[in-house]
Amino acid sequence: SNDDIEDVSLFDADDDVSRRSKKSKIRHPVASFFHLFFRVSAIVVYLLCELLTSSFIACMVTIILLLSCDFWAVKNVTGRLMVGLRWWNQVDDDGRSHWVFEARKVSAQGSKTASEAESRIFWLGLITCPMIWVIFAFSALFSFKVKWLAVVVMGVVLQGANLYGYIRCKVGSRKNLTSMATNYLGKQFLRQTVTKEDQTAS
After folding, report:
1. What is the pLDDT of residues 101-143, one digit of tens each?
2. What is the C-alpha separation between 43 and 169, in angstroms, rounded?
3. Using CA of residue 21, residue 168, residue 34, residue 84, what is the dihedral sign?
4. Coiled-coil stretches, from where to where (predicted)?
């Protein structure tokens, strides 16, 4: 159920100032560090490996290990700690597979609210890095670096899976991505209209 779940900021950058000041501290610095460390390290190794070594196997194994560590850390640790979201797959007694997407429920005291800074770090890393791997995939394809294509596809799949899982957690089962994008664009249009009217009135 998605009732009474915490509203973790995904796109909205214009939250209330007082609310933002209360949530600006990073409460999980180690989780925040490792949320970015493995995924950024995999990208850096991919970019620099041909300069550092001539061994393709060593580079491939290093990148895949970093991507696997990132997938595990983001799916099992950083998502839960930084934004109160988690997802997993479970198999029932009949052998059917079910995907489960959960969001932390808001406590009565509001003590479980996510830090705004951690939320921004989480979503920035989660969205940006898969986009970079997609760019690498097109680059490897068009430059005919077929041996690197498998590594790049692994990056797209592992980081894309986490991105999809957490967006499903955030959006919920009753909404889809199209309605979320429409609502966001509608809000932005309304804000711009109100701002122009205020400027005209003054």
Report:
1. 888 776 544 445 567 888 899 999 999 999 999 999 999 999 8
2. 26
3. positive
4. none
pTM: 0.69
Q: What is the mean pLDDT of residues 49-72?
A: 91
The model's pLDDT over 151-177, given as tens digits with 9 standing for 90+, comes to 999 999 999 999 999 998 888 744 555
DSSP string, 26-53: -S-HHHHHHHHHHHHHHHHHHHHHHHH-
Instruction: Kindly report, residue by residue over 64-75, the tens digit of the pLDDT.
Output: 999 999 999 999
SS3 97: strand
- DSSP letter (8 states) at residue 184: H
Provide the token pair at 159.
């980081």
3-state secondary structure of 85: strand
Locate all alpha helices (DSSP H) within 7-115, ordered by sequence. 17-22, 29-52, 56-73, 79-83
Based on the number of CB atoms within 10 Å of its own CB, is 69 exposed (0-12), middle (13-18) or buried (19 or more)?
Answer: middle
Residue 81, token pair as written in the block: 């700690």
